[in-house]
Amino acid sequence: METLSAIAWTTVDSESAAESLARELIQRGLAACVQVDEPVQSIYKWEGAVQSGREWRLMIKFSAAQNEQLNMFIVA
Question: What pLDDT, in 10s, does the model give residues 40-61?
Answer without folding.
Answer: 999 999 999 999 999 999 999 9
